[in-house]
Amino acid sequence: MGEIKPDILQRALQREKAARKQAEGILEDKSRELYNVAQELKTVNEQLESVLAKKSSELQGMFHNLVDAYVLMKVNGDILEMNDAAKELFGYDPKNEKLNVISLIHKEDINYAMNSFQELVTEGFFTDYVARAVTKDNGVRIVHINGSVIKDKNNEVIAAQGIVRDITSQIEAQQLKEELLRNLEQSNKELNDFAHVVSHDLKSPLRSMNALITWFKEDYEDKLDEGAMKSFDSLLNKIEKMDHMIDGILSYSSIDKNEKEKQKVNLNKIVSDILEMIFIPETFSVNIHDMLPVVMGDKFRFQQLFQNIISNAIKYNDKEKGVLDIKCREIGGFWEFTLADNGPGIPKAYHRKIFEIFQTAQDKTKSTGIGLSIVKKIVNMYGGEVQVSSEENKGTTFLFTLKKTSK
Amino acid sequence: MRNLKILLIEDDEIERMKFTRVLKKNNYACKLEEATNGEEAVEILEDETKTPDLILLDLNMPKMNGIEFLKSLKSNSQLKYVPVIILSTSNNHQDLKRCYEEGIAGYLVKPLKYEDYVEKIKALIEYWGKNELISV
Predict the structure, then answer these.
(1) Short-list A257, A242, A261, A260, CA closest to A191
(2) A274 contacts A306 by C-beta, under 8 angstroms
(3) Residues of chain B contacting residue A236, judged by C-beta atoms under 8 Å apart
(4) What digits encode the pLDDT tens for the residues A91-136?
């Protein structure tokens, strides 16, 4: 048994050879696979690198191009980086000098800043922080800051970044605007009070004058001749005229008053109320041809608007049969009203003037020259325009628009 | 018709003359007290024998004005039922509302013309002369 048979050896050798060859083949395959994987990895890596480079340069670009100031700081407040806008705003360059965020905060706002910083660390961000910042040359700017934290891969906060916007001029402009508005309101109110006080104070002596003259007439009736009586009567007329003018000033100034809450106003009712209220001679007819709309606004103003035109039409009419035609139609976003009478008409030269205060086309004894200026003021107030067309001796047409309001 | 005891609170002398003239010309036998502002009126009202049936009150007066007087009157349990009629220049909605809120029995706007004034005051006297009034 000590002798090895050569053919067995031969077979064993052959088996071993075959196994090695097989192993070599497997190895070769694996190497090829490995090579392929390595190649793929290389491409992916290259791609990743280029993406990273792209992102970095994008970030860098944003950092530089950001109009707002950008500040990056350590958790302890030491400033790491500032973009150009930040350097310009604060006056510091953290590359050249050591800087902590505390020195940028106005000392009266320190508490607020600390609270906000705490919020930043716990929440991860804060928005709409507004406070005063101090610049290197001790200037004070009002800034708006949105901030967020930067974490490492273990979720540890390693830095904080903030976008800082200088809103000083915006705030100042806002304050200026508010102040102007307050002043305007104040002087409007004063003017209004003034108009009221003056009007009432002026009316009181007129009443006294009227009483005293009337008593004079009553008490000395048998001693006064016709001429004296006539003089007293014209004196009373003048007093009455002056009283009307004061009423006019009063209502002209009242329409400027703060508008009452807007309410639905039915113009059909407004006009029919006016027609019941004012004196209309039997020879005069008012024809309403269309349904009038319901509009939004102050009832009193619409009443003044229509009453001024309607009563003018009646007061100045010189025809045997006086007529006033009222029409209304819708044009785009507006209501258009026409009130046409057959009165004496208004000479063209006055068409512009009649809407100015204290201007009248008529003889001064009948008119105060305030009514149509009120009409214009109210129409303009409701986003409309008013115009007049007239032919002498044939009549006058007032046309005005009122802007439709959304209900 | 009852002979009314009237307290007229009015700072304008001519206005007071107008009122007395209407009483005289129409032979109204009213007993009239006059005050030129709220303070004077309060003094008059301290005398119980002078408690009026009717108070006519101007709004715009020096020292104590009409609204202030009205407030003090309404807080006085002895006098709060005395009807107060406002005689004022103002027909301003705000003024009217303030007066009615305090509690008034009427509000007359002083007309420009004396004849119109006579009409209003005559109607006022006739109406209140026929009213039932209470005294506390």
Answers:
(1) A257
(2) yes
(3) 113
(4) 888 888 888 888 888 888 888 888 888 888 888 888 888 888 888 8
CATH domain A260-407 topology: Heat Shock Protein 90 (3.30.565)
Q: How far apart are CA A372 and CA A253, in angstroms?
A: 14
H or E element in which residue A386 lies = strand A386-391
Nearest-CA distance B96 → chain A (Å): 15
| Residue B117 placed within a domain | no
DSSP B48: G
Tokens, residue A176: 């200026």
If one looks up domain A66-166 in CATH, what number appears? Answer: 3.30.450.20
pLDDT digits (tens, 9 = 90+) for A308-355: 999 989 988 899 999 999 999 999 899 999 999 999 988 888 888 888
* Nearest-by-CA chain B residue for A244: B112
Residue A277 has a CB neighbour count (10 Å cut-off) of: 11
What's the domain range around B48? 5-112
C-beta separation of B117 from A211 below 8 A: yes
Contact between B112 and A207 (Cβ < 8 Å): yes
Pick from B14, B25, B61, B86 the residue to mutate for testing the A interface (most A CBs within 10 Å). B14
* Structural domain count of chain B: 1
CB pairs under 8 A between A and B: 39
Picking from B14, B17, B60, the nearest residue to A200 by CB comes out as B60
Tell me phi and psi for residue A404, to 5 degrees: -75, 135
| B7-35 residue pLDDT tens | 999 999 999 999 999 999 999 999 999 99
**B48: CATH:** 3.40.50.2300
Asked if A204's CB is within 8 angstroms of B112's CB, the reply is no
CA distance A303 to chain B (A): 16
* Chain A contact for B19 (CB, 8 A cutoff): no
| Domain boundaries defined on chain A | 1-61, 66-166, 176-258, 260-407
pTM score: 0.55
